[in-house]
Amino acid sequence: MELPPWLSSLSVPVLSAAVGGVIALLFLADYLRRKRAEVATISHLSTPPDPKPSAPSSKQAPPKKASQRSHLHHHSDKDANKKHHQLDLNTLKGHTDSVTALCFSSDSHNLATVCADGAIRVFRIDDTSSKSFKSLRINMHAGVHPTGIVFSDGASHVVVVGQALMGCSLYSYGDVSGKPVQGKPSLPEIHWEHQKIHGRESVLNLTSAIASYGSADGSTIVASCSEESEIKVWDGKTGKLLGAVETNQLKNNMAAISPNGRFLAAAAFTADVKVWEIVYSKDKSVKEVIKVMQLKGHKSAVTSLCFMPNSEQILTASKDGTIRIWNINVRYHLDEDPKTLKVFTIPLHDAKGVTCQYDHMSISPDGKILAVTSGSTLQWLCVETGSVLDTAERAHEGDITGIAWAPQSIPNGGVPSTILATAGDDRKVKLWLAPSVNAL
User: Which residue windows are transmembrane per the record (predicted)?
Assistant: First the structure.
């Protein structure tokens, strides 16, 4: 029977495809057979005929594990050294985010902190060796992140600066000492507040002092330093604005008030430090804030400064790699200029040998030890000689955000001791024992 023309034309390509498929399968089967033979041959060659020679190779693995254990042990030792610096006494726990600032009360019994988690915490420090510390937590308004804090009226009130989307505000909280009222713990209340104290600008730091100079009434004076060129002075108890000054520079770095409440100094974009006097009237109130002197001598911007406890000298640290001690106890009204008493070279260098910049500096209550920070490194210097008393590299696992000396001694295991507190990005607040100056 003759096939239809369309079926005949179709059968040829179909038959060709079928034959091609069979041939491809044959080639693939032969290829797989040869690969299995090669694998079997390689496996046979790699397997020693005598199991005894394999013993050394089986014994070579443990040294590798031992090496790993040794490395881990060394690493843990390094961590232990970092965590247990000889001056590192204790760590305050409970913060869930970066700690942005801290300060001691005038009696040193309370340490207040502010944290990026939106909370203010006040810790009771009776002995730095305690296993735990009682604390009071105050949650700020939603969307407000506290960035600075100072005590007012001894240990009972705190003034806090909070950063929000539209600017910074200032709040005063009372009864933060946590003393019970009629058998129940008192709840802190906002005594006063000011919104957008520097417009939309951020506040770099808060500084305060008890006004004791001249006719001052002993009230707490607070200054807020904006990130641009404005600094405002406030009454810590009432919240009254006492004065405002302009540094007339592109950017502020920080500001500080002298311990007696007389002077206000600012470190800013240029190498010069401007100093104002807070003038008190006969009725003990603040009359005005006037510029009285300028510290000239650094060759580059001043990154940090602090006053000596006697309020008559200022210490400054600059990007030019030096620390200067200035005498400001001069008759400026007779055009007598402040004088440089000492110049020290910053002794801290990075891995490349470049001089580090100090981010924070604070003087001990006796005026003998200068605590400074750069990144995560904490260092103690002798004020008299500028020499290094001790250094804690990686004192925190992140940058150090603030430091504060306890104004009075605190027991450490029952022994009255000079204590420094540090805050960091690592959610920790640490307590440190002051090094001995006589160790030099």
Answer: 6-28
Which region among 1-10, 33-42, 151-160, 419-428 has the lowest average model confidence (pLDDT)?
33-42
Question: 410-415 long-range CB contacts below 8 Å, 24 or more apart?
Answer: 410/108, 410/125, 410/127, 410/128, 411/126, 411/127, 411/128, 411/129, 412/89, 412/127, 412/128, 412/129, 413/127, 413/128, 413/129, 414/127
Q: For residue 164, which of 191, 135, 196, 188 has the smallest C-alpha distance? A: 196
Cβ burial of 33 (10 Å; 0-12, 13-18, 19+) is exposed
What letter represents residue 218's amino acid? G
**Cα separation values, 121 from 16, 179, 226, 230, Å:** 87, 15, 24, 28
Indicate if the alpha-carbon torsion angle 237, 312, 268, 434 is positive or negative: negative
- How many helices (H) does the chain have, and how many strands (E)? 2, 32
If one compares 156 and 327, the residue with the highest pLDDT of the two is: 327
- Bridge partners for 373 per DSSP: 360, 378
The type of residue at 369 is I
pTM: 0.79
C-alpha to C-alpha distance for 172 and 352, rounded to whole angstroms: 45
